[in-house]
Amino acid sequence: xxxxxxxxxxxxxxxxxxxxxxxxDAEIRNLWSESIHCRNQRQxxxxxxxxxxxxxxxxGTAGCVLARELIYNISNVNILVLEAGPSxxxxxxxxxxxxxxxxxxxxxETDWGYxxxxxxxxxxxxxxxxxxxxxxxxxxxxxxxxxxxxxxxVYMRGQKSDYDSWAAQGPEYKIWDYDHCFEAFKxxxxxxxxxxxxxxxxxxxxxGQLHVQDSPNDTYEMAKDxxxxxxxxxxxxxxxxxxxxxxxxxxxxxxxxxxxxxSLADAYLTDALKKVEKYPPLKPLTLPYGGIAxxxxxxxxxxxxxxxxxxxxxxxxxKEDENIAIGVKYFCNGGIHNAFIAPKGEVIICGGAxxxxxxxxxxxxxxxxxxxxxxxxxxxxxxxxxxxxDHPLCYIIGKVSNPNxxxxxxxxxxxxxxxxxxxxxxNVEGKIxxxxxxxxxxxxxxxxxxxxxxxxxxxxxxxxxxxxxxxxAFTLASVLNFPSSVGHLELCSSNPFMLPKLFLNYxxxxxxxxxxxxxxxLLREIIKQPPLSTVWAVKEIGLNDEFGKWCSxxxxxxxxxxxxxIREKTSTASHTxxxxxxxxxxxxxxxNHRLQVYGTKNLRVxxxxxxxxIPNTNTNAPVAMIAWRASKLIEEDYRNKI
Length: 642
Ligand SMILES: Cc1cc2nc3c(=O)[nH]c(=O)nc-3n(C[C@H](O)[C@H](O)[C@H](O)COP(=O)(O)OP(=O)(O)OC[C@H]3O[C@@H](n4cnc5c(N)ncnc54)[C@H](O)[C@@H]3O)c2cc1C
Hints:
Layout: H1 11-14, H2 16-47, E1 51-57, H3 61-73, E2 79-82, H4 101-105, E3 114-115, E4 119-122, E5 130-133, E6 137-138, H5 160-167, H6 178-188, E7 189-191, H7 198-203, E8 210-214, H8 221-232, E9 248-251, E10 253-254, E11 256-257, E12 260-261, H9 264-272, E13 277-279, E14 298-300, E15 302-305, E16 309-315, E17 325-332, E18 335-349, H10 352-362, E19 365-366, H11 368-373, E20 380-381, E21 392-400, H12 408-412, E22 420-424, H13 435-439, E23 445-450, H14 456-464, E24 472-480, E25 488-490, E26 501-503, H15 510-528, E27 538-541, E28 544-545, E29 548-549, H16 559-569, E30 571-572, E31 603-605, H17 620-640
Helix pairs in contact: 3-9, 3-17, 6-17, 15-16
The protein binds flavin-adenine dinucleotide (FAD).
C-alpha cells in the first residue's frame, strides 16, 4: 500500500481502503456519541428520582400510541414506559418479515408463553355427553410493540354497530359512539392505496402514523380462482373491507410499509422518542461536563425501559381508603425499582387483556374470592378478568394436487400477510349459509385463505417428509367474529411472574358451535368447486384420511363429527379483550367511560381489556383507536387539574 502523506488533503477521496476506514470511524463515533446522549438522558431521569407525569405500563399497541399522543399534545411532561419484553430491534429480524409469520407467534423471546386451561364441557350436539377441551398455546406479544409486533397484520376496523353498542351504555358513553371512534380511526391511519376513489377516501385516513397497505403483489393465480369460486357461490367481491360493508371476498389491508411489518412501535413509539426538550429552556450548557444541574430543568421526553416488568401499583398508604395510585414497583436489571408520578400525573396500565387484569389483581383490585385465595389484600372488589372475550378459530386444509407449474416459493409467497378474506353470516342451525346470509350486511364470520398450513399433523408431515412426499397445501380458516360464549381468567399465585389461568369457554353456547359448523361446511363446499377442484385438483385433507378420520360413517361428516373435530382443532384468533370492562359498575364494569378504574384515583386502563363487547373484527386497529381517544381524555383531565 502506498504511504499517504499528511499533505494529501483529498486522500480519503481517492484511497478506497482509507475512505472505508474513515467512514467506519465516523459511524462508530456517531454511535458512541449517541450512547453518551442516551446515558446522559438516563442519568437525568435517575436524578429526578424516577418521578414522571405519566407512567405507562406496557409498550404494546395501546402503550405506543398513548406515549406519542401525550408527549406531543401536553406540553412539558415526561413519560416513563415500562415494557416487560425486549426491544423490537434486539430480537431476531424475522419479526419484520411477513412471510415468517407462523414462526414468530411462539418465539420464546417475544411471547408470554400462555396456555389455555383444560376444560370439561357438555357436548352441544349430544348434551348427555361430556367433552374434554385440551390445553392450547395462547400467543401474546412480550416485546416493544406488544402483539402488533407479532400479529398477522390484518387491518380491519369493524362496523358502526360495534361501537354504537359501547355508547348505548349511558349518555356519558356517547364519546365512544361510531362517529367519535371513526374520527380516531382516520386520525391513526395512513393508507397507501394508489389512486383511491372518492368512496375509499370517505372511509380512510391518509395522514396518520400507522401505515396501511393493500396486501402486496398482484393476487396469485390460485387466489384469483378462489375469488371466482366465491363469486359463483353468491359471495360478492369487496374492494374495501373497511368501507361501507365488510361482506364478501376481497384482499386484506395490512399494517405494512415497503413490504415489511409496521408495528405500532414503528408507527408511534419511534416518533415519540424524537421529542427531547429541556424545560424550562436552558441557556447553552453551563456545567463543566455538559450536564444539567439537578432541579434546574426537567427533561421533556419519553423514557422507555425494556425488560422492565411491572410488579404492582404503589398506593398512598396514608390515605388507605382512597386507593390513590402514586407510582409503580417494577423489576429491571436484576433489582426492584420504584417510579412515582408527579402531582397531576397518572399511572396508565396498557399491559393487554391478560396482563392488565393480572396487574390490577396483584395490586388488590379484583374478585374478592380469587384475591383472598392468593393472600392478596382486597382494596376494591371488581369483576376483573371475568369478561374474557375472544374469537375462536377453526379450519380445514386443502391439498393442491396439481400445483399447475406453481412452485413452492410462489404458493408460499402468498403468506406475505393473509391475502384473502371472506366475510359472511353463519347459519345458526349449522347448515351451509343461505344466499341471504352470504349477502347479509352484518357478517359474523371472517374466513381467511392462507398458504400457511395451520394443522400441526399435516404441517409436520410436509416438513419432515421426503421430497416425493411433500405437497402444496393451504388453510381455509374461519374466525367466529361474534361469539356468544364468554370466558374468564384467574390468578393462581401472588407471584407476579406466574401466569394467570385462562378459561376460554369456546362454544359454551350452542349457537356458537352451530355457526362454526355452518362456516366449515361452506369452506368445504368452496374446495369442491371448479376451477379449484379441476385446474388445481384441490382435495380436502385431514377429515377422512391418514391425517385424521373424523367421519364416523362413510364420507359425510355428521354434526356430532363436526363438533369433535371443532373441539379438537379450535385455537384462538388472538383477539383477546374485555377483562377490564368499560361499563357502569352496576353492569359488571371495571372502568368508567373515561377508562378510570372504579374506586381508585390516578389510575386508568387503556388497552384491549376495556372493550365491553367484542367487535366484529380484528382488534389491533380498534385498540389503537381506543388509545388515541383515551389520549384526548387524559389530556382534558390533565388540563383541568389545578
Ligand atoms: C398472534 C397474533 C396475531 C394477531 N393478528 C392480528 C391481526 O392480524 N390483526 C389485528 O387487528 N389484530 C391481530 N391480533 C390482535 C392485536 O394485535 C391485539 O389485539 C393488540 O395488539 C392488543 O394491543 P394491547 O395494547 O391491548 O396489548 P399488547 O399489544 O399485548 O401490549 C401489551 C404490552 O404490555 C406488556 N406488558 C404486559 N405485562 C407487563 C408488565 N407486568 N410489565 C411491563 N410490561 C408488561 C406486554 O409485554 C406487551 O408488550 C393478533 C394478536 C396475536 C397475538
